[in-house]
Structure formats: structure tokens, C-alpha cells
Request: fold
Amino acid sequence: SLSRSVAGQVVLVTGAASGMGRAIAEVFAAEGARVAATDLVAGNGIRALDVTDDAAVGCVVADVVGELGPIDVLVNCAGVSMPAPI
Reply:
């Protein structure tokens, strides 16, 4: 049977300091995944990562793989909010 469990899987979430990224990281962690949460500024369990910096992305991915193992799930939530008319 096909299991939908994420328990034990390594999940990398960008934009995880707030909003949807944070909520997604929290749900994966609650389900037993090993979450590597990233955002522009480190703190409170968040790793610093500017997703526009290719070298930084490579370093963070290598660190996560070295610490937690191969990444099973990638969730890209990094972005900016800019007011715009509908």
C-alpha cells in the first residue's frame, strides 16, 4: 500500500519565518518530518537563506543534507508582498 506519511522525511521550506511558509513548516514538523526551515534572517530555528544567491542555496542544501540526510520534499514559499490593485 502507498503511505502518505511524511514521518522521518527531510523537508526543506523556504520563506519559513512567517505566513504560509511558517504554517507549512509547522505542519510538516507536527507530522514527524525533519524540517529545515529557511528565510532571509536566521533565528528561532530558522536557517538564513537568500534564495536569489545561488552559492548560498548550494551551501544550505549541502548543510541540510549533511545534517539531516537527502532532501525528500522541497517547499518554496520565499517571496515578497507588494500591494497592488486587483
Notes: The helical segments are 19-30, 54-68. The CA atoms of residues 41 and 69 lie 23 Å apart. The longest helix spans residues 54-68.
